[in-house]
């Protein structure tokens, strides 16, 4: 009797331990509230859709996604990352809505040897901050350089740049300016409004006074609607000033609400909800059904972040040690809703098509309609250093 009890207790203990060992926790840190909340909303929906479509079982393990709100404050991101690793035994961290929050976790990723999958932030240098960082979003040089080339080829000669005053904005300004000047173009002024609570009106007034052919803009996801409203109010469109930029300004989360001022705005980016492929049509339909709103590039970054993690866990046959997972992520290739993508094994950054798009009305809705493709662009910042 005693022996039987002991055996069943042992069996119970063993099965509990086995069940716990079968759980694989991924910690996702996002701005769910505050100025960057649309990024959190889109990223959460993208990651959850991937799991809903592919199930939570991977290589015999059960994937658990824990989502935490850092309000886009780097000190909170760092604390949450520590708690996720230490208390929740997260084997990988994911998300990071803005560059400073991705930077904040880099030393921890290195120390814990835990993959940091950056699915939103887009300053080029991020992946160099830890050998455990992999990115499924994009880089600002990747999107800004093709915009300069397109503008020059299409008769734009004088530009004022307006970028949010922090790392990705500086990247956008630098890469647009260097490329456009090399092509033969002229930069009349470089303006940097603050990231926090921006009022673009005085900056747009200054830009208008410079009489450029076009304004090149980078503002982070979520700030585009206000920028566009003030662009209209300050009369730049009426004065014949074109608006060009990276696709963050005509973000799919907001573009449909921007009104006619957005019509004709040309941007370069890696994702449009209007992208014409069977994979994207299925993705958009499922996403809209689950959430009641349109996916933007943040949703796709997170969807692909989950895809990359699933791929790595399959490849390691369920082994969760960081170096093995990172090794499996290097060189991974798959078909994303945005088109074909690949993780550059040398830089751990994403290689992808950049599309030139124009805002047009389709069935009464505003979309970024792609009309040119620059295939499989590597981050030019890292390419230039070689
Ligand atoms: C970053 C944030 C954004 O919302 C965006 O569209 C691009 C870059 C960033 O902080 O890296």
Give structural notes.
- By secondary structure, the protein is an alpha/beta fold.
- Helix content is 42%, strand content 23%.
- The chain contains twelve helices and 15 strands.
- The chain has helices spanning 2-22, 37-54, 74-86, 99-112, 140-153, 167-183, 201-209, 224-233, 278-291, 297-315, 322-329, 380-385; strands at residues 23-30, 57-58, 61-69, 92-95, 116-118, 133-135, 158-163, 186-191, 214-218, 242-246, 266-269, 333-336, 339-343, 350-362, 365-377.
- The strands form two sheets. Strands 7, 8, 9, 10, 11, 12, 13, 14 and 15 form a nine-stranded mixed β-sheet that branches. It has a six-stranded mixed β-sheet with strand order 2-3-1-4-5-6, with helices on both faces.
- Strand 14 and strand 15 form a beta hairpin.
- Helix 2 (37-54) crosses helix 10 and helix 3 runs parallel beside helix 4.
- The model is unreliable at 1-10 (pLDDT under 50).
- The site of 3,4-dihydroxybenzoic acid has 10 residues, from loops.
- 3,4-dihydroxybenzoic acid is lined by residues 39, 98-99, 121-123, 168, 220-221, 248.
């Amino acid at each position: 009797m005693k022996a039987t009890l002991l055996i069943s207790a042992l069996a119970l203990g063993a099965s509990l331990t086995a069940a716990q060992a079968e759980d694989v926790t991924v910690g996702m840190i996002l701005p769910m509230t505050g100025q960057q909340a649309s990024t959190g909303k889109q990223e959460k929906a993208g990651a959850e859709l991937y799991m809903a479509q592919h199930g939570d079982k991977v290589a015999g393990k059960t994937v658990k996604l824990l989502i935490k709100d850092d309000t886009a404050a780097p000190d909170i991101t760092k604390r949450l990352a520590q708690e996720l690793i230490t208390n929740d035994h997260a084997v990988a961290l994911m998300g990071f809505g803005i560059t400073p929050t991705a930077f904040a976790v880099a030393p921890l990723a290195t120390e814990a040897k835990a993959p940091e999958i950056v699915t939103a932030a887009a300053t080029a240098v991020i992946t160099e901050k830890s050998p455990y960082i992999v990115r499924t979003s994009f880089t600002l040089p990747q999107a800004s350089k093709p915009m300069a080339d397109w503008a020059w080829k299409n008769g734009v000669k004088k530009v004022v740049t307006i970028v949010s005053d922090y790392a990705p904005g500086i990247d956008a300004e630098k890469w647009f300016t260097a490329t456009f000047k090399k092509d033969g173009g002229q930069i009349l002024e470089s303006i940097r409004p603050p990231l926090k609570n921006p009022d673009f009106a005085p900056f747009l007034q200054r830009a208008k006074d410079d009489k450029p052919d076009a304004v090149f803009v980078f503002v982070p996801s979520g700030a585009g609607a206000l920028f566009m409203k003030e662009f209209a109010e300050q009369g730049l469109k009426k004065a014949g000033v074109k608006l060009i930029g990276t696709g963050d300004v005509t973000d799919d989360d907001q573009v449909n609400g921007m009104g006619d001022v957005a019509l004709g705005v040309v941007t370069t980016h890696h994702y449009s909800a209007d992208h014409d492929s069977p994979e994207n049509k299925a993705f958009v339909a499922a996403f809209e059904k689950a959430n009641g709103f349109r996916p933007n590039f943040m949703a796709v970054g997170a969807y692909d972040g989950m895809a990359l993690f699933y791929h790595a866990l399959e490849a390691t046959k369920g082994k969760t040690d960081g170096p093995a997972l990172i090794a499996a992520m290097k060189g991974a290739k798959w078909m994303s809703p945005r088109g074909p993508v690949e993780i550059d094994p040398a830089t751990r950054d994403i290689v992808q098509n950049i599309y030139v798009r124009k805002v047009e009305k389709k069935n009464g809705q505003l979309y970024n309609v792609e009309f040119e493709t620059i295939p499989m662009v590597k981050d030019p910042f890292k390419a230039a250093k070689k």
